[in-house]
Amino acid sequence: MTTWLTADTHFDHNAILRHCDRPFDNTDDMADAFFEHTNAVLSRGDQIWHLGDFCWRASNAGKWIARFRRGVQIHIVLGNHDARSIRKYVSSTQEMAYRKFRISAESEIIAHMYHYPLFSWRAREHNRYHFYGHSHGTSEKTLNMLFPNRLAMDVGLDMAHTILGQWRPFSLEEVVAFIEERNKQQS
Fold it and tell me: Which of 17, 58, 94, 104: disulfide with 83, CB 3.0–4.6 Å?
């Protein structure tokens, strides 16, 4: 089972194309690219933690959830564009999550997940991670400069495209490896 992280898919949100300079003619083309890249890496039993702004209309959430590979659990940390009614389509919803994840047989992390980037998060001083969305990758350079060696990262769709070159979620392993490499370069 692999854990995947993403945020800010903004399905059905036409303004996001302009706002984030996403290179699609319309939101259906954007969704097609997302599901093509995402379903290519997902396996039955995987879980996706979506950290907010899933879709513009909660009434369409079921249509988008149905496009994920069968047998994948979807957990939503609510964002500023998400309605609570999305909960009927997914495995869980919450305002904020604090979870332990296994990276490998001998390694695990604890992560504080929220839609928004936080200056400080639960147990930050004890090497806990923070994953978030909302800022569409625009704050990372500043946050890294202000807070070097932080164990935090924007895992949203725009960051994934910037780092991975694909419109898909990050695996948890990719995020941890990216943070470790970034922090090594900052030291």
Answer: 58
Three-state secondary structure call for residue 150: coil
CA distances from 23 to 119, 134, 155, 160 (A): 31, 19, 19, 14
pLDDT in tens, 100-130: 999 888 899 999 999 999 999 999 999 999 9
Between 3.60.21.10, 3.40.50.150, 3.40.50.2300, 1.10.4160.10, what CATH number should domain 3-186 receive? 3.60.21.10
Neighbour-count burial for 34-68, b at 16+ CB within 10 Å, e otherwise: bbebbeeebeeebbbbbbbbbbbebeebeebbeeb
Select from 158, 162, 157 the least CA-distant residue to 182: 162
pLDDT in tens, 22-66: 999 999 999 999 999 999 999 999 999 999 999 998 889 999 999
| Cβ-based neighbours of 141, under 8 Å, separated by 6 or more | none
Per-state percent for the chain, helix, strand, coil, to nearest 5: 35, 20, 40
